[in-house]
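Exercise 7. Predict the joint structure of the components listed below.
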Amino acid sequence: MNAMQSGKGFVDLFPPQSDMFTSIESQARSVFARYGCKELRTPLVEFTELFVRGIGAETDVVQKEMYTFPDRKGRSMTLRPEATAGVLRACIQHGLLSQEGLCKFFTIGPMFRYERPQKGRQRQFHQINAEVLGSRSHLADADVLFMLHAFLTEIGLSGLIYELNNLGCPQCRPMFRHALEAYYGRVRHDDLCSDCLRRIRTNPLRVLDCKAPTCREITKDAPSIADHVCDPCRSHFNQVTALLEESGLQTRRNPFLVRGLDYYQGTTFEVVSSDLGAQASVAGGGRYDGLVRELGGPDVPGIGFACGMERLAMLVSEPMPPSLDAFIATSGDHVLARAALMARKLRAEGFGVEFFYESKSMKSQFRAANKLNARACIILEDAGEGGVFLKDMLTGEQTPCSADQLAWNLRKLRAS
RNA sequence: GUGGGUGUAGCUCAGUUAGGUAGAGCACCUGGCUGUGGCCCAGGCGGCCGCGCGUUCAAGUCGCGUCAUCCACCCCA
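Solution:
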């Protein structure tokens, strides 16, 4: 019988990586709470149509990357490939958007995309998402970026590049699109890669961030989106960048930054690192003012971002392994039960305590204590009341200790 | 979906050039230390050499296939 294996792109998270995930998540909760975001947990499975309408039927995510399957009644269901659509659906469904005021939520959890795995990319991956619904103000854009920056800084990341672009609105974007189509229509077709020849028809904006050298060369002289946005879009974006500049948050304008999800418009951004290989982007987001309405809700604007946990975890340094307050070393089978009861009592008082379920040599028990980074060893020689010794594992000093005084002594050791 | 790299002990990897009975380090166990740790020393446990077919007297090594995995393209977090 062959040993069972996980599916391609579905990975197990062991320490220290699982510890890093936990630590990143708790810092996210702490930062987002200060910014007034509440945690929302939405289903991992939604009706397929939600993503088709939300992300865009023509996007790669929807066309070839979704885990889609019929349920028992033949309805098409999909494992969520991103979080925003589900969050908006939940807010619409529960009537949160029909009132005045902001809706600010974050959500943490797994996403699923059927892709070939590579560095920084799995089929099940984890994101931290934040959404602010209900404001068109440039202050919302800036505040969301402040929050993202605060989070990334608090988990210890510096040297990240914050790229910004303005994608325009449904009024002005078509003009830019026409300009692009006209420009690329004039260049010699065999100079563009085959992907870009296709993109000219499907989504000309995507040609802008093609990595093929010849395409980049051609794109250098392509019309700039900055020259084609309408006045309201231009002024909104300028206000955002002015505020960011005033805050001291370093950003970089990237006119070729185009995001792959159709719902983005206006301010879009991406945070990239140079230490991640090909998947350089640790976070990305932007404004999606038409999306709530597209999903059947009221005309409520929104802005949000997503961070990739796996990519964050590759950048943060490993947390220190937790140390143990005491390891109980037993002298034989006759004290195992006493060790278990003693461990239970000390653990209930807040100490980290370990012991073996089988009696082993003292040598192997002390080795285990070292490996677990135990501050002290409790040596049990007697199944009755006495025979207890406490050994400081740093100094090697070993003294008799009554069972009642263990907690007091462990607390003292912990403080020293 | 396409391209390239890699599959040998629990982990990291030598060994493949030139076919000849399977190696190291780490980890684990035991002992030196007459029940007391880290360092050191000695010993031990542990391998269908990813899987299948072929070439050969003989294959971890050569050929074909297959699976897995990693990296990259595409795209995204």
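Discussion. The mean pLDDT of chain A is 91.
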